[in-house]
Amino acid sequence: MSAPYPWLETPWQRLLATRARPAQALLLAGPRGVGKGALARAWAQALLCEAPQPDGAACGECPACHWYETDTHPDFRLLTLQEKTGKEGETRMATAIEVDQAREAVDFVQLSTYRAGFRMVLVDPADSLNVAAANALLKVLEEPPLNTVFVLVSDQPRRLLPTIRSRCSRIDIGLPPADQAAQWLAGQGVDDAANLLALSGGTPLDAQRWADGAELDERRGVLEGLALLDRLDPVTLGERWKAVSPQTWHNVAYKWLGDLLAVKLRGSVQFNRDFAEALTQLGNQADLAKLLALARTQANEGRTLAHPLNRALQLEAWLIQYRHVFD
Ligand SMILES: [Zn+2]
Known about the structure:
Elements: H1 9-16, E1 25-29, H2 36-48, H3 63-69, E2 76-79, E3 83-85, E4 91-93, H4 99-110, E5 119-123, H5 131-142, E6 148-154, H6 162-167, E7 169-172, H7 178-187, H8 193-199, H9 204-211, H10 214-227, H11 234-241, H12 246-266, H13 276-285, H14 288-301, H15 311-324
Parallel strand pairs: 1-6, 1-7, 2-5, 5-6
Antiparallel strand pairs: 3-4
Helix pairs in contact: 4-5, 8-9, 10-12, 11-15, 12-13, 12-14
Bound molecules: zinc ion.
């Protein structure tokens, strides 16, 4: 079996070479949208497989592979952000991996394994562990039980507790070379690979998501609002945009501000080339200090993306601040 994505071949081979004695605590770090999660999952299957291929990759046919592929392998646990149901029945994603999830994983690794092989706990995104959860995990990371492997996946490894980071062997995954990413996207049937890669800051999986359509329409809707400054009505736009997923909205607005800064500082547009004209005009009009302040707020907010109680009101406040940039 080859790597989940062609640009991951080197780290994949590096992992397979350790299959007989895998690192018991491993950190896969790198920017979002490069396939770290897919790599971690392929590695989990390779470790759990009971009839691995000569290179160490999973066979895809044994009972263990079958269980893994149907999310029922008894020696595998995934620690991730869970959906929560609020008072009014609305669902939202939790903003942190909670301590009870970590404790459940700690209990899990104290039991004997169901099968004779390895057991794995995958933590993705590991930077979402809250402090209590991280501390609970730390104890077992320091002395992992026999045949137990922890894999932590993170876009922001600096946000992990230093004591956790120092326990892990680390593999850094970088952005793939642009031509390799473009070639892969073309192979997936994406027409506009170069433009979409620019839009996604070079991350092929984000570019693919853009190409899938719905988000691209949402993006256009948001950008058209941001571009028409003299008709920008924060209340109307806040109401309209509250349906856009916070992640998509954040990415779109963040790159828009990045482009305004790029126009201001370098005279060119980096991400949204299809809006170059509007960006050039607005960028020249913007107050640099106010723009920097807004971009900084935006960068910080990206770390805690969740549906707040009143999304429309939050967007409205943002838009008022945005309008002030051009006063
Ligand atoms: Zn197998």
